[in-house]
Amino acid sequence: MRRVPSPCAQWGDKDADFIREILDLVGDKWSVLVIGTLSEGAVRYSELAEAIPGISQRMLTLTLKQLQRSGLVDRTAYAEVPPRVEYSLTGLGTSLLSTVLELAAWSADRHAEIRRHQHAYDSRTA
Q1: Number of structural domains the chain divides into
Q2: 43 within a domain of the structure (yes/no)
């Protein structure tokens, strides 16, 4: 039997595990949408919630915390009344932005083709 190399074969197991962890984070649909929304600059939580259809308050909060933890998003709280908090991309997050936007554009450009394949597959396997 032929052995097929892993796509992460050039890295050790520890690095490959980390790569999968980061791809899980940045490949998550909510992370992609948050990063894309923050591409225009600092945004308040309520503006993010309005700009991302279908995201729950819990999921937005969780996604922002995960992105902050990985150094992709920055949270700035201002000592004002009422309190104001803004989220923005860090330098690391900005370096990921073009990849995320390319993935989103690829998805949008191929949406109809992918749906056709999905329907054809579902019809064959039903």
Answers
A1: 1
A2: yes
- Cα 47 to Cα 24, 42, 83, 84, distances in angstroms: 25, 10, 15, 12
Domain that holds residue 91: 13-125
25 contacts 65 by C-beta, under 8 angstroms: no
Q: Using CB atoms within 10 A of its CB, is residue 116 exposed (0-12), middle (13-18) or buried (19+)?
A: exposed
Q: Tell me if 89 is assigned to some domain.
A: yes
In a domain, 2, yes or no: no
Let me know if residue 4 belongs to a domain.
Answer: no
pTM of the model: 0.78
Q: pLDDT tens, 81-126?
A: 988 999 999 999 999 988 888 888 898 999 999 999 999 999 999 8
DSSP string for residues in 7-73: TTTTS-HHHHHHHHHHHHHHHSHHHHHHHHHGGGS-EEHHHHHHHSTT--HHHHHHHHHHHHHTTSE
